[in-house]
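Researcher: Next sequence.
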Amino acid sequence: MPLWLTSKTRFSSLRQPRARLALGLLVLLLLACLTALNTAGPPPVSRDPAQRANDKADVLLYESIVAGLRNGGDYYPVTAAALRRGDYPLRPFVTFRLPTLALIEASQPLIASIVMLYVLAAGVLLAWTIRLRPAFQRAPPLAIAMILLIAGMAAFVQVELVHFHEVWAGLLIALSLALRRDDRWAHAVAFGLIAMLIRETAALYVLTMAALALLEGRRREAVSWAAALAVMVPVIAAHAWAVDRVVDSADPASPGWAGLLGFGFFVKTMSISTALAIAPAWLSAILVGFALFGWAAWPGTLARRALATFVAYAVLLGLFGRVDTFYWGLMIAPAFLVGLAFAPDGLNDLIAAATRDRRRVTITRNVR
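Model: Next structure:
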């Protein structure tokens, strides 16, 4: 009997041996999450006003680029100058963000950009409320799920992050996920494309959606996602060409992205990127594991796509993330904690399946 959800989870139909194996894997997942306690992370914010330039270096960088555009500058020379002032690498070309967000924000007052960010956040909240409402039996569990969604979006309504590309791209990915349905995916593809035009690393989300559509035999949908990826090819090529015109061989190069910090770094980034940042480190690590477990438990194509997206970015962060690129976690943070709302039913069904008595009582009748 479901606890919160309107239907049983994926684990309810497992046979006893597989259920016990799944329980063992859950324990291993939680232990793996605890490796975050010994994983390198960004230094804590000092909260000292005199150290604002160090604490908010990336934020100030993007602020200065938008300010330069408002003063009549061209994006690539302005960005190159800002990167040099901040001792940032200028090579390869991916060290430059795509100009989309900066050009939009420079064309309007700051208050307009803030309003747009809040409208987008409200749209994400509404879209996920509509998608989650049928999943829960009663209002209180739905309210808990929405609180978890808000907790995942804690960083996304901070005014000082309005120029931060990952904030916009993360909200757009969350909106795309919520809008995608088996019979309607055009709007989801469109928002996925917009996310890529703001932050090219959103291509990993679009690639994941295309792969799942292809594996499920949804060829038209797969073609749509692939078309969105194809649009990015000339965009990235033009971006690389424009960067090459303002960079010279004396400019510093990036140290590379082969961080190899492991799964613990992904767990740490999700803790930092959500309201879990206020919890003790060990507790936030465990909750990250249960959020993944909850998404694995909830049946349906939405949960499958959400989980696949989270796993894809976990691989990205674990293999290529560096301590100073922890903000990549913002790309998937908004909806991530919602998985905790599915975890109670998933754990209940998994324990029931693992402890189910398979013995059968046989009644015989003696004939005299």
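Model: The chain has a mean pLDDT of 92. The first helix runs from residue 16 to 33.
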